[in-house]
């Protein structure tokens, strides 16, 4: 808006002259950006094929470890410095020949994952695709993404096939892809996944969601694949292809892109044709309210919770079920807002958030991934950013903390729910989901049902990141900078949030659309109603 105000102060003649100059510069920069982008993709892909000498790779190992030690708070929470030093030294001893960036990644990432911080992970290097290839893929359906998956031990199952691709039945096990056993990939990829502490529930969920992301990073985008399967004892091989989208598919996609008020408030995701947030009543008399949040995206969340809890208050609901299963986290601000509707008394959501130094907030790569125009704009606004971040920390008892609104005493919302709360959790409840549920459990505000969360009970390191690039392999390394803890009495278990009532969900439940965890809650409510 400042740019518009500056222009409006010019007279028409000067304004038109200045506008023409800006237009010429804009089109020149756009042309320059296009050429640079094409060259950048080509250069990046060529670099992925080059084998890097061992001494250069060892430099990258030292660089990665030095940056992690410099920036990551509470680095030795789950592993001792002695053990981690030994692991990095041992890694360097195994590097005795040139490796491509991808080969090097498969050596370094398992060591990073041994730190056991779920947010700390290298970005897998992979081939980039050109704008022409992107355009081509836009008009084609996914090849593996059209299925839902379930992982059990070293086995991969198809749990859903909404498009009835090749009439493959849910429950079918994929034995191999292009003649390579699936078990090989699962064992290979499992080592890459970082978890919070000694949690055991997170990896199967995260691996099923990322399996084919890893696979495509290794193999590239393919137009066909052969999968060998078994279903009810019968083995069969299918040839999967990347089909073209039909006219109806393209029409539906176009329609889905329209942003209605409902889509905004419920945070519609076109890719999955679903909403991140859902609210409804589970009974005719509206005594049981149900809120499902698949991601704390922060988008229009204030309006969503305001509407939902106004309706809950109007109907005098006695029970509230909050479903954060398969919610990998997101906005701290959103869970702070949600908690204001769940606590009838003033509360503090998180403890003061620790950082390694007063300069930590300035290490967030302000100019990262900026094109020419964005870089110019950010240059103008950098002084404001620098000033704000410089005064965003404070020292207390020899430690440095980052100022966050959620660590202050907060009042409950006027429509705060005062009835009984149940929360559904599983191994894919991570990060912000774990902070929320840990706080609810500690305050005895809710009964948690399901399985241990994937995120740690006592806190996590994330908040915002410093994006480092290893100098020789050019692999990206995002490092979380803020130690965020719920305002609770620590359990010191080094694991996730443990449910009050443990109820497991099986693949058969998923296939047949049964929900034993929700059913347990509904049965418990029925018992309470009957007993009254």
Structure characterization notes:
Helix 7 (182-190) crosses helix 8 and helix 12 runs parallel beside helix 14. The longest helix is centred in the N-terminal third of the chain and has 38 residues, at 12-49. The chain has 532 residues and is an alpha+beta fold. It folds into 2 domains: 140-241, PDZ domain (Pdz3 Domain, Roll), CATH 2.30.42.10; 260-531, 2-enoyl-CoA Hydratase, Chain A, domain 1. Strand 10, helix 11 and strand 11 form a beta-alpha-beta unit. It has helices at 2-8, 12-49, 54-71, 81-94, 101-113, 131-138, 182-190, 202-219, 247-256, 261-265, 301-314, 332-340, 372-390, 432-442, 507-511, 516-531, and strands spanning 148-152, 155-160, 173-177, 180-181, 224-231, 234-241, 268-269, 274-275, 277-281, 288-293, 319-323, 353-355, 393-396, 399-402, 420-425, 447-450, 460-469, 476-484, 501-502. It contains 16 helices and 19 strands.
Q: Which key phrases capture this entry?
A:
single chain, 532 residues, alpha+beta, Pdz3 Domain, 2-enoyl-CoA Hydratase, Chain A, domain 1, 2 domains, 6-stranded antiparallel beta sheet, 6-stranded mixed beta sheet, 16 helices, globular
The biggest sheet, with number of strands, parallel, antiparallel or mixed sense and barrel status, is: 6 strands, antiparallel
The proportion of strand residues reads 15-25%
Full CATH superfamily name of the largest domain? 2-enoyl-CoA Hydratase, Chain A, domain 1
The structure class reads: alpha+beta
CATH fold-level label of the largest domain: 2-enoyl-CoA Hydratase, Chain A, domain 1
- Kindly report how far apart the N and C termini lie: 59 Å
- The rough form would be described as globular
Summarize model confidence as the mean pLDDT: 90
- Provide the domain count: 2
């Amino acid at each position: 808006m400042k740019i518009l105000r500056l222009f409006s102060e010019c007279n028409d003649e000067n304004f038109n002259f200045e506008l023409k100059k800006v237009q010429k510069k804009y089109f020149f920069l756009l042309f320059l950006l296009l050429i640079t982008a094409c060259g950048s993709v080509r250069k990046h892909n060529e670099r992925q094929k080059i084998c890097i000498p061992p001494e250069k790779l060892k430099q990258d190992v030292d660089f990665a470890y030095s940056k992690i030690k410099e920036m990551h708070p509470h680095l030795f929470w789950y592993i001792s410095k002695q053990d981690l030093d030994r692991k990095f030294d041992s890694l360097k001893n195994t590097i005795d020949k040139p490796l491509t960036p991808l080969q090097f990644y498969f050596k370094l990432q398992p060591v990073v994952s041994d730190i056991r911080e779920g947010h700390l992970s290298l970005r897998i290097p992979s081939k980039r695709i050109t704008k022409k290839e992107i355009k081509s893929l836009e008009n084609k359906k996914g090849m593996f993404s059209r299925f839902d998956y379930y992982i059990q031990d070293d086995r991969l199952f198809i749990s859903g096939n909404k498009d009835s691709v090749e009439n493959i039945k849910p429950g079918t096990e994929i034995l191999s892809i292009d003649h390579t056993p699936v078990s090989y990939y699962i064992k290979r990829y499992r080592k890459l996944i970082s978890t919070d502490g000694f949690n055991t529930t997170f990896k199967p969920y995260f691996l099923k969601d990322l399996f084919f992301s890893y696979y495509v990073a290794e193999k590239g985008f393919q137009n066909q694949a052969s999968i060998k399967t078994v279903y009810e004892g019968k083995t069969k091989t299918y040839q999967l292809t990347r089909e073209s989208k039909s006219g109806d598919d393209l029409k539906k996609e176009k329609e889905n892109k329209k942003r209605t008020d409902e889509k905004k408030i419920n945070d519609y995701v076109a890719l999955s044709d679903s909403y991140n947030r859902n609210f409804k009543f589970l009974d005719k008399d509206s005594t049981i309210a149900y809120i499902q949040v698949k991601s704390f995206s922060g988008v229009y969340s204030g309006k969503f919770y305001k509407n939902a809890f106004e309706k809950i208050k109007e109907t005098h609901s006695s029970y509230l079920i909050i479903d954060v299963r398969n919610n990998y986290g997101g906005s701290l601000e959103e869970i702070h807002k949600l908690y204001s509707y769940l606590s009838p008394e003033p509360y503090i959501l998180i403890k003061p958030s620790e950082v390694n130094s007063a300069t930590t907030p300035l290490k967030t790569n302000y100019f990262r991934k900026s094109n020419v125009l964005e870089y110019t704009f950010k240059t103008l606004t950098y002084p404001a950013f620098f000033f704000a971040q410089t005064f965003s920390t404070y020292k207390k008892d020899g430690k440095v903390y980052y100022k966050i609104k959620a660590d202050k005493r907060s009042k409950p919302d006027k429509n705060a729910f005062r009835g009984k709360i149940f929360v559904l959790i599983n191994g894919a409840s991570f990060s912000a989901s774990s902070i929320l549920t840990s706080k609810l459990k500690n305050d005895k505000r809710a009964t948690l049902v399901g399985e241990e969360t994937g995120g740690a009970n006592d806190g996590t390191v994330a908040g915002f990141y410093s994006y480092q690039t290893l100098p020789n392999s050019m692999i990206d390394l995002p490092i979380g900078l803020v130690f965020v803890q719920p305002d609770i009495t620590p359990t010191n278990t080094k694991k996730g949030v443990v449910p009050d009532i443990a109820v497991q969900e099986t693949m058969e439940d998923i296939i047949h659309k049964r929900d034993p965890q929700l059913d347990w809650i509904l049965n418990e409510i029925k018992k309470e109603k009957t007993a009254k």
